[in-house]
Write a structure and sequence with these properties.
Oligomer: single chain
Largest sheet: none
Structural class: mainly alpha
Order of helices and strands: HHHHHHHHHHH
Helix content: over 70%
C-alpha cells in the first residue's frame, strides 16, 4: 500500500510539474520538484505506514529538512532565468512530449526507486538503534556539507572580483560538494532504514542515487558543461571530482 501510494504521489507531482514546465517553456522546473517529491513520498510513508512510528517520522523529518532546502535552493537558482543549458543540450530539437518522457517520467520513476528505503522502513518493526543513529549522523553531515557548499558558491557568484572558477572552501577539496553531500544524505537514510529488516534489501536505492549524482545527471554532466571555461582544466587536474580529498599541488 505504501509503495503504490508513493508511486501515485510521485506521478501526480511530476504531471503537475510537467504542466507548469510547459506553461513556462522550460523543463528545469523539475529540479525544484525533485526535492519536494521526496518530502511528499516520506509524508505518505509516515502517514500510511504501520511500522515503527518513531523511525517513520524521523525519516520524514530528515527528508523534509533536506528536500525543502534543496527545493528552495533550486527555485532561487532557476527563477527568472531561461532553460538550464544541460536540459537544452539534452532536448535540442525535441518536442515537449519527448521532454516529458525523458525528464519528468524518468525522474518520477527515479524518485520512487531512490525513496524505497523510506517506503520499506515505514512497514518495518523496531530495529538496531546504533545503526539508525549512525545513519542520522551521516545524513546530517551530508546536509551540512551540501548546505555549506551551496552557500560558498552563492558567495562566490556575488563577489564581483571572483575568478573564472570556484576553487575556495569545500570546492578546493571536491568539484561537487553539493552532490557529495546529497550522496551522504541518502546513504544515511538507507542506514536508518537498514536498521530494521528488510530495509537492508533496498541498498540499490542509494547506489542508484550515487550513480545519478556522479555519472548520469550530476557531476560528469556538469563537468562536460564546464569544459573550455578558463582555468577549468587546471582546477579539475588538482581537485577531486567527487569524494573530498586534499587538493593536489
Amino acid at each position: 500500500m505504501v509503495s503504490g501510494a508513493s508511486l501515485l504521489a510521485a506521478a501526480v507531482l511530476m504531471a503537475v510539474t510537467a504542466a507548469i514546465g510547459h506553461r513556462l517553456g522550460k523543463v528545469s522546473v523539475v529540479d525544484t520538484a525533485w526535492g519536494l517529491g521526496f518530502v511528499l513520498v516520506a509524508l505518505v510513508a509516515a502517514v500510511l505506514g504501520d511500522g515503527s512510528a518513531s523511525r517513520r517520522w524521523l525519516l520524514f523529518a530528515l527528508i523534509a529538512v533536506w528536500g525543502l532546502r534543496l527545493a528552495r535552493h533550486m527555485h532561487r537558482r532557476n527563477h527568472g532565468k531561461g532553460e538550464d543549458p544541460r536540459y537544452a543540450q539534452m532536448l535540442e530539437g525535441a518536442s515537449y512530449a519527448v521532454a516529458v518522457r525523458k525528464v519528468f517520467v524518468t525522474q518520477g520513476l527515479a524518485l520512487w526507486f531512490v525513496s524505497l528505503p523510506v517506503q520499506v522502513s515505514a512497514v518495518a518493526g523496531h530495529g538496531v538503534l546504533p545503526v539508525a543513529a549512525l545513519g542520522v549522523l551521516l545524513a546530517l553531515a551530508g546536509l551540512v556539507f551540501e548546505s555549506v557548499g551551496d552557500a560558498q558558491l552563492a558567495a562566490y557568484k556575488r563577489d564581483p572580483d571572483h575568478g573564472p572558477v570556484m576553487d575556495r572552501g569545500l570546492w578546493a577539496w571536491t568539484r561537487h560538494p553539493n552532490y557529495f553531500g546529497d550522496a551522504c544524505v541518502w546513504w544515511g537514510i538507507f542506514l536508518v532504514a537498514a536498521s530494521a529488516w528488510p530495509g537492508v534489501l533496498t541498498v540499490l536505492s542509494p547506489v542508484a542515487m550515487t550513480y545519478f549524482l556522479v555519472w548520469a545527471t550530476g557531476a560528469r554532466l556538469l563537468d562536460r558543461h564546464m569544459e573550455g571555461r578558463p582555468g577549468w582544466a587546471e582546477y579539475a587536474a588538482r581537485t577531486s571530482m567527487f569524494v573530498p580529498l586534499p587538493p593536489k599541488r
